[in-house]
C-alpha cells in the first residue's frame, strides 16, 4: 500500500459524466460535466463482440439506446448505428455510444481526470482489462496522472495491475468490508469504492477508522454528500456534476 493519499484529490467525480443533465456515458455528458464545474468524470468500458472497447454501463443496450441485445453480442458497427441520446431527451437525438478512444480524446481535450470502470460481461473479465489497458497505453499521455481504474471484478483488476502497475486501482463493493485494509491488500488495490446501499453509520465509521482511501456512489443529495465527506469519504460519485460541495 502506498503512503500517497489521496489518489483522487477532488471531492466529486461526475458519475457517467453529468448524467443528470445529459445521456450517461456519452460525449455530451462529458462536455456537460466540464461546463458544470466537474474536474473528474467516471465512465464504464465494455467490449463488443468483435473486441472493441465502448463506453456503456449495462450488459444490454436496451436501457440507454434505441436497440436491443447484449453489448457482447453486437459488433462495433452494430453499436455505432444506435441512438444513445433520444431515450434521455429528444434534444440529444443522434448521440452515439462512444468508443474508448473517442472518450479519452474528449476527456483530455476538456482537461478532466478520469475514472475508468472496467465493466466486463461475465466471462470476458481478463480481455476487458487487456483491451482497456492497451487503449490507455496508446492514448493516455505517459506521466499525466489523474486517471485510475476500478471494477467489481477481481480478475479485471488483477490483469490491469500486471499491465499498468503504476496506475491506481479501486475495488468496488456493495457490502462494506469488516476489514477494509486487509481487503485492499488482498486484491492489490489502493482505493475502495462502495455503493451507498449498505453504508450505515457503523460501516462509515469502520471505513474511516481503517485509514483507507474510499469513495461512495451514487450520491445525488447535497446533505448525504456532506455527511459522507464529513464521515471520512475522500470522494463521492454523483449524477449532478454541479453538486455544491
From TrEMBL:
Residues 10-245 form the GP-PDE domain. GO terms for biological process: lipid metabolic process. InterPro entries: GP_PDE_dom, PLC-like_Pdiesterase_TIM-brl. It comes from the Bacteria. Transmembrane segments: none annotated. Pfam families: GDPD (PF03009). Gene3D superfamilies: Phosphatidylinositol (PI) phosphodiesterase. One of its GO terms (molecular function) is phosphoric diester hydrolase activity. PROSITE patterns: GP_PDE, PIPLC_X_DOMAIN. This is Glycerophosphoryl diester phosphodiesterase.
Amino acid at each position: 500500500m502506498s503512503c500517497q493519499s489521496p489518489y483522487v484529490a477532488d471531492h466529486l467525480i461526475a458519475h457517467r459524466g453529468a448524467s443528470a443533465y445529459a445521456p450517461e456515458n456519452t460525449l455530451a455528458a462529458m462536455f456537460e460535466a466540464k461546463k458544470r464545474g466537474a474536474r473528474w468524470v467516471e465512465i464504464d468500458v465494455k467490449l463488443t463482440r468483435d473486441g472493441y472497447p465502448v463506453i456503456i454501463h449495462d450488459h444490454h443496450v436496451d436501457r440507454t439506446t434505441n436497440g436491443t441485445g447484449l453489448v457482447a453480442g453486437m459488433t462495433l458497427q452494430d453499436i455505432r448505428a444506435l441512438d444513445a441520446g433520444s431515450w434521455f431527451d429528444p434534444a440529444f437525438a443522434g448521440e452515439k455510444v462512444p468508443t474508448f478512444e473517442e472518450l479519452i480524446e474528449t476527456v483530455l481535450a476538456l482537461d478532466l481526470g478520469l475514472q475508468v470502470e472496467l465493466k466486463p460481461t461475465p466471462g470476458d473479465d481478463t480481455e476487458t482489462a487487456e483491451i482497456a489497458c492497451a487503449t490507455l497505453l496508446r492514448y493516455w499521455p505517459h506521466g499525466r496522472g489523474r486517471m485510475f481504474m476500478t471494477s467489481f471484478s477481481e480478475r479485471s483488476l488483477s490483469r490491469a495491475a500486471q499491465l499498468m502497475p503504476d496506475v491506481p486501482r479501486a475495488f468496488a463493493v456493495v457490502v462494506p468490508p469488516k476489514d477494509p485494509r486487509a481487503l485492499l491488500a488482498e486484491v492489490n488495490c489502493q482505493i475502495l469504492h462502495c455503493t451507498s446501499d449498505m453504508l450505515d453509520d457503523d460501516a462509515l465509521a469502520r471505513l474511516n477508522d481503517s485509514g483507507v482511501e474510499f469513495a461512495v456512489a451514487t450520491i445525488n443529495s447535497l446533505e448525504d454528500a456532506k455527511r459522507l465527506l464529513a464521515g471520512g469519504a475522500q470522494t463521492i460519485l454523483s449524477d449532478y456534476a454541479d453538486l455544491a460541495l
